[in-house]
Design a protein that fits this description.
heterodimer; A: 421 residues; alpha/beta; Aspartate Aminotransferase, domain 1; Aspartate Aminotransferase, domain 2; 2 domains; seven-stranded mixed beta sheet; four-stranded antiparallel beta sheet; disordered C terminus; B: 154 residues; alpha+beta; Sufe protein. Chain: A; three-stranded antiparallel beta sheet; 5 helices; 38% helix
C-alpha cells in the first residue's frame, strides 16, 4: 500500500513491543540503540568529573564533553561551539534567557511579545518577567488555520519591544513559524528573537547561522537522547554581556572573599558538574539523525502527517486543527464529536496506540481554539503507515463504542456533534 | 508490526460499561443550584479538566445533610458519569455517609476485591475495571473531591 520506510528496528523499546504504536514523539521520543550504547560506552570507558582532575581519566571525560558540544553545534550549523550552552532542556534554556538576560534588560514600560502558539515554557517565563519588571506583555493572535499572523505581529512590535519569543514549531498544532519574517520584524526595532526549538530541532534541518535569531532552545529527549540534556544557542556578544544564571563550581574564574569573576563561555552558564553522559548521548542522537538526513526525516514525517490528515479527515465527526501538511511538522491535533479526548486516548491505548490528550501545555492556545482538550498524534523517524492504520482504526473503535456502528460505516455523511444516540 | 495489543474490544467494553456511557449521554443532576449553600470547583492539573458542584444543605441535624446537588463539567465520560451517579447517591445523605461512600469508591478504583462486592456502591460498581487504567482514576474522583470540599465544616 505504501513504501514509507520504517526504522523501528533501531529502537529497542519498539522492537520489544511489536504491537505498540507510539504516536507521542512531540512529548518525548524513543531512544535508538546507538544512543543507549554511546552513553553506556562513555560510562564504562571514560567517566570521571570533567574540568577537574589532574589525571588522564578526567582529561578523557573532559574531551568527551568537548567533543559532544562540537558535534551538537555542527548539527545546528553553529560555527562557534562555545555559544552552545548545555542545559536540562528547552524549559531551562528559556528560563535562563528570561532570567539572566530579561531581568537585566527589560525595564518598566518595555514590551515583550509572544504568540498564541506558545508552549507554557515559552509563555509563562515571559509573562512573569513582564510582571516582575513592569513591562507590557503582548500575545500575537493566529490566522484561522493556526499560524502566527505576521500582520498582527508587525503591529504588535514597536520601538519599545525588547524581545519577541516564538515557537519555531507549535507542539500542539505542528504549525511551522516563518522565522525569517519574524526576525526581520524584530530586527527593525532592535528586539531580540528567542526561539523555542523543542519541536523543530528533532524534525527538520536547522541552520542556526541562516536563521539569524538571537537565542534558540532545544531538548535532547525529543531528539532521541535521554532526558535531562538539551541546549541553548545564543549570540556570543549577548551571552558575554549577560550575568550568570546559576552560581557554583565550573562557572567561576576567581572567587574572592568579596567578589567573583566568571568563567568564559560556555562554562559561565554551566554551574556544577555537567551532565556529561547526557551530552555524549545527545551527540550520538544527532549523529543518528544526521545519518538519516534531516531532509529525509522531514519528508518521512510529512508523508505520514498528510496520510493521517487525509484519513482522519475522511471520518465523520472528526475535527482537525492546524494548517495543511506542508506548513506543519509531524503533529496532528484533533477532536471527535461526542467523545472527550481523554476517552479517545484511553480507547486508543487499549489498541496499543499512544497519543497525548489534553491541553498540551498550551492552555492559552486551546482557550482560543475553544476546546478544553484535543487528542494529538505526533510522528518521528520510527513511525510508519501501520501506525496511521492503527490510529484510524482506534478512532473508529471509539466511535463505535460511543455512538454505535452506524457512524463509522463508509460513506456515512458527517453529522453534528451529539452525545445521544 | 502485525501483532495485536493484548487488550481488545472486550476489554474496552468492560471499561466503558453501558451504565457509564448512559450516564455520560444523559447525566443526572447536571446544572447549577441557584440558591446554593456551597459551590466548589476542582480541577485536574494534568489535563485541565474541571468539575463544579453546587449543594443546598440541611444543617438542622447533628450532621450536615445534602438537600440537593448539581454538577457542571466539560470533562470526559468517566468524570461526567461518576459525577452523575454521585448526585443520585449524595442527595439526602449526611456528610459522614458521603465520606464513607467516597472512601469505598476510592477502594474500588484501587482494585480492592472486597469493594467489588460492596452493594452500597450501587451503580459505581461500573467503574471497577478502571483500576486497570490508573491514569484515569483522578477523572472518576474529580467531582467527589469537590463535594468533599463543599461539605467540609465551616
Amino acid at each position: 500500500m505504501t513504501t514509507v520506510m520504517t526504522r523501528r528496528a533501531d529502537f529497542p523499546l519498539l522492537v520489544r513491543q511489536p504491537g505498540l504504536h507510539y504516536l507521542d514523539s512531540a512529548a518525548t521520543a524513543q531512544k535508538p540503540a546507538v544512543v543507549l550504547d554511546a552513553e553506556r560506552e562513555f560510562y564504562e570507558t571514560s567517566y570521571a568529573n570533567p574540568h577537574r582532575g589532574a589525571y588522564a581519566l578526567s582529561a578523557r571525560a573532559t574531551e568527551c564533553y568537548h567533543d559532544a558540544r562540537t558535534g551538537v553545534a555542527r548539527f545546528f550549523g553553529l560555527r562557534d561551539a562555545a555559544c552552545l550552552i548545555f542545559t536540562r532542556g528547552t524549559t531551562e534554556s528559556l528560563n535562563l534567557v528570561a532570567t539572566a538576560w530579561g531581568m537585566h534588560n527589560v525595564r518598566p514600560g518595555d514590551e515583550i511579545v509572544v504568540t498564541r502558539l506558545e508552549h507554557h515554557a515559552n509563555f509563562v517565563p515571559w509573562q512573569q518577567l513582564a510582571l516582575a519588571r513592569g513591562a507590557a506583555f503582548r500575545i500575537v493572535e493566529l490566522t484561522p488555520d493556526g499560524r502566527v499572523d505576521i500582520d498582527l505581529l508587525r503591529h504588535a512590535v514597536t520601538p519599545r519591544t525588547k524581545v519577541v519569543a516564538v515557537a519555531h514549531v507549535s507542539n500542539a498544532l505542528g504549525t511551522i513559524t516563518p522565522l525569517g519574517e519574524v526576525a526581520a520584524i524584530a530586527r527593525s526595532v532592535g528586539a531580540l528573537v528567542v526561539v523555542d526549538g523543542a519541536q523543530s530541532a528533532p524534525h527538520m534541518a536547522v541552520d542556526i547561522e541562516a536563521l539569524d535569531v538571537d537565542f534558540y532552545a532545544f531538548s535532547g529527549h525529543k531528539m532521541g537522547a535521554p532526558t535531562g540534556i538539551g541546549g541553548l544557542i545564543g549570540r556570543r556578544e549577548i551571552l558575554e554581556a549577560m550575568p550568570p544564571y546559576q552560581m557554583g563550581g565550573d562557572m567561576i574564574e576567581v572567587v574572592g572573599d568579596e567578589r567573583t569573576s566568571w568563567n568564559v563561555l560556555p562554562h559561565k552558564f554551566e554551574a556544577g558538574t555537567p551532565n556529561v553522559g547526557g551530552a555524549v548521548a545527545l551527540a550520538a542522537a544527532v549523529r543518528y539523525l544526521t545519518s538519516i538526513g534531516m531532509t529525509e526525516v522531514r519528508r518521512h514525517e510529512q508523508t505520514l502527517t498528510a496520510m493521517a490528515i487525509e484519513r482522519l479527515g475522511a471520518l465523520p465527526g472528526v475535527r482537525l486543527y492546524g494548517p495543511d501538511a506542508t506548513r506543519r511538522s509531524g503533529v496532528v491535533s484533533f477532536t471527535v464529536d461526542g467523545i472527550h479526548a481523554h476517552d479517545l486516548a484511553t480507547i486508543l491505548d487499549q489498541e496499543g496506540v499512544c497519543v497525548r490528550a489534553g491541553h498540551h501545555c498550551a492552555q492559552p492556545l486551546l482557550r482560543r481554539l475553544g476546546v478544553s482538550a484535543t487528542a494529538r498524534a505526533s510522528f518521528f523517524v520510527y513511525n510508519d503507515a501501520a501506525d496511521v492504520d492503527a490510529l484510524v482504526s482506534g478512532v473508529r473503535s471509539a466511535q463505535t463504542l460511543f455512538h454505535g456502528p452506524r457512524v463509522v460505516s463508509p460513506g456515512t455523511p458527517a453529522r453534528p456533534a451529539t452525545a445521544s444516540r | 508490526m502485525t501483532a495485536t495489543h493484548p487488550a481488545g474490544s472486550a476489554a474496552l467494553e468492560a471499561l466503558y460499561q453501558e451504565q457509564i456511557l448512559a450516564h455520560y449521554r444523559h447525566p443526572h443532576g447536571k446544572g447549577t443550584l441557584a440558591a446554593a449553600d456551597a459551590t466548589v470547583t476542582t480541577r485536574n492539573p494534568l489535563c485541565g479538566e474541571e468539575a463544579t458542584v453546587t449543594v443546598t444543605l440541611d444543617r438542622t441535624g447533628p450532621d450536615v445533610r445534602v438537600r440537593d446537588i448539581r454538577f457542571t463539567s466539560d470533562g470526559c465520560s468517566i468524570s461526567q458519569a461518576s459525577a452523575s451517579m454521585m448526585t443520585d447517591l449524595a442527595r439526602g445523605r449526611t456528610a459522614t455517609e458521603i465520606a464513607a461512600l467516597t472512601d469505598r469508591f476510592a477502594d474500588l478504583l484501587r482494585g480492592d476485591a472486597a469493594a467489588t462486592h460492596d452493594e452500597t456502591l450501587g451503580p459505581l460498581q461500573a467503574f471497577a475495571t478502571l483500576s486497570r487504567v490508573p491514569a484515569r482514576i483522578p477523572c472518576a474522583l474529580l467531582a467527589w473531591k469537590a463535594l468533599a470540599d463543599a461539605l467540609r465544616p465551616q
